[in-house]
Amino acid sequence: MTTLKASLLVILSPVLMTIVIVTCYILAVTYGHVPELLPYICECGALPPENYVYRMGMVTSAVLLILSCLLVYWADEDWAYAGYALLAGLSSVPGLTVASVLSYKEDINVHILATFMFFIPYSIYMMLFGFCYDGKNLKISIMSENVKKVCAIVMIVAVVISAFLFLLTCLSAHSILKAVLEWVGSIAVGVFNMTFYSDLQKFKVKFFHVEDVKKSK
């Protein structure tokens, strides 16, 4: 039997996502595919060779995000809004997956739609934990709670402004403000998820080996 800390497992997604985005940004700038100043994150993973890293890394992050949502849910499934939070978190994963795999250069309409399909439900997930959590099992400190609230508010503002910008301007038109909002929203997601590291310190996950199962029989 192998035992791992839930606090380490829950941050795998934001850590990997950060590594992937930074790596792809460096590669994209090095190859001259994007400007050094505020490119869209999706632009950093649109062309080879960085698109291979981007797609594999972001899809893996999406899978790990499922694990993160499940761990938080199992830690305090008696919380009144636990089911709603889990639904919001899991429903954001398909959007992240499609946006990661389908480049804006291939189909900008589907890419942008998928991006909003990730950010909108996940902002609800963030709002629930930032402003509605009153459970007893997660040991959320004052600092963790405040960081969650700030990240949730930043996320909501970024999503609303981005939606207006895309409705009022051409989808393919590059805008510094659009790029800033994409980076701000992504950073808010990452920081929010990192707060669960302290919240789940007392929880551990046990993995059974095949040998253990045979012995138990």
Secondary structure layout:
Blueprint: E1 2-5, H1 6-9, H2 12-30, H3 50-75, H4 82-91, H5 93-101, H6 108-132, H7 142-168, H8 176-194, H9 196-199, E2 204-207, H10 210-216
Antiparallel strand pairs: 1-2
Number of strands: 2
The largest sheet is:
2 strands, antiparallel
The strand order across the widest sheet is: 1-2
Residue share in helix: 55-70%
Residue-averaged pLDDT, rounded? 91
Shape: globular
Helix/strand-derived category reads mainly alpha
Low-confidence stretches: 212-217
As a whole number of angstroms, the C-alpha radius of gyration is 18 Å
How widely separated are the two ends? Answer: 15 Å
Q: How many separate domains make up the residues?
A: 1
Elements, N to C (H/E): EHHHHHHHHHEH
> What fraction of the residues are assigned to beta strands by DSSP?
under 5%
Description:
Helices cover 69% and strands 4% of the residues. With 217 residues, the protein is mainly alpha-helical.
Task: Give the tags.
217 residues; 2 strands; disordered C terminus
Summarize the structure.
The protein has 217 residues and is mainly α. It has ten helices and two strands.
